[in-house]
């Protein structure tokens, strides 16, 4: 009896304290996602737990406007000017509690919290990912032609036997082979299009990581400590992990050994990274340097494998659902047969249909939808010209919510590449501002130009000579998972190939 009385009294005191805290808080003028959000994060954690964060954010912003309160100190932002332009500037640090829950391993660029540390690292890594470097890289030319050749061999077989092909898996293989070749040189690239064992290992590891992330970002402390119990089998497969780490260690050691004798024309990214780490800190012990480079490479490999695998396979899927756009694309690709003094990489940048098809898929099928939380600095900030948000508030945006806004994108759920081709220059510039597949600002994706060149070149390889179409027998769920990296729910996407020439 006494316990009940004391318990109720404590609860009432807590409610009163919460209400008073909220009345003093600078966030009280912002529309609430749910009546409970000023007092508790439970609502936010529950939509995350139930994998409804995407839908909820899209609908909330349609109903309540561009700034919505989703927790006691959490705000969701869904506009460009006075919105993401402000919160993704270099003044806002990443939210440590989110990014450290996200990855076990920290110390690489994505997980760095403070912007000063980050700026130094980014300066060391960014050059070989710049657009001019990517367009002129011989290392990338040679790995792309090797992977394209392998892919053509594969397609010839699939087309002649009428095989139903898991293009999600094949796309992941292509991307892993290209990224490993760019990082370590063609001689040391993986060859998973031929021998998919490695790709399977990486997919297994990614699945457990995604599951683990979901648990850790949707449970309330102290439950996070028990996440592995609650989630069942979420520990990484030790055999797959062992094989993967052994390969990475070997390839880094080999790259290091060969570094002094490599001519600049065949330099891989490893060679660049090594030189920049050495220049930044000549006395850094070799083992430290090797492990810094290894975690960055590991991250770039998995971003390419999953992120680009998702994007390429969904582009193929949408083209298979829409034969008219597939024909329009092919017609444009056939113009590449005309001789030109420009390289293929440069010519790909000038193909409007190809660009529209890729951009529209980046919009509807963003592989990493976020949200990406940032912390408001002590000086506070003002959003959409009217809400003064105090320091310490966690603000975040999600690519899906931005991309499914019906104002810049009427009928946002429809995949319609034409929307990029039939508007005037001003409207187009406005629409482009809303595309947030790779984030924006000081910490936007470093792999954007690499991603665009690789995506476009592989689409040329496929759609110049082949047609893809839906496999009627495939009934898997091709919607994306509402998690940090968003694979197809079925785990595969099946299509068929037909040779055209
Ligand atoms: C379709 C594929 C990809 C998507 C959708 C994607 C998306 C993103 C997004 C949204 C961010 C910002 C994350 C944040 O604010 O916390 C990011 C950061 C990053 N991405 Fe990607 N990415 C892709 C491919 C790649 C590739 C191929 C690389 C390889 C280099 C890469 C390397 C990075 C790195 C290093 C960062 C951190 C940048 C920094 O902190 O300065 N990504 N990516
Ligand atoms: C995100 O929400 C939109 C709008 O409700 C929906 O069309 C889309 O399928 C959702 N995606 C996921 C992965 O939940
Ligand atoms: C990397 O390439 C070199 C040179 O061809 C070769 O000797 C070495 O075994 C390769 N290492 C790996 C891990 O593929």
From TrEMBL:
The keyword Ribosomal protein does not apply. The keyword Iron applies. GO terms for molecular function: heme binding; iron ion binding; monooxygenase activity; oxidoreductase activity, acting on paired donors, with incorporation or reduction of molecular oxygen. Keywords: Heme, Iron, Metal-binding, Monooxygenase, Oxidoreductase. InterPro entries: Cyt_P450, Cyt_P450_CS, Cyt_P450_E_grp-IV, Cyt_P450_sf, Cytochrome_P450_monoxygenase. Its cofactor is heme. Heme binds at residue 445. Gene3D superfamilies: Cytochrome P450 (1.10.630.10). Belongs to the cytochrome P450 family. This is Putative benzoate 4-monooxygenase cytochrome P450.
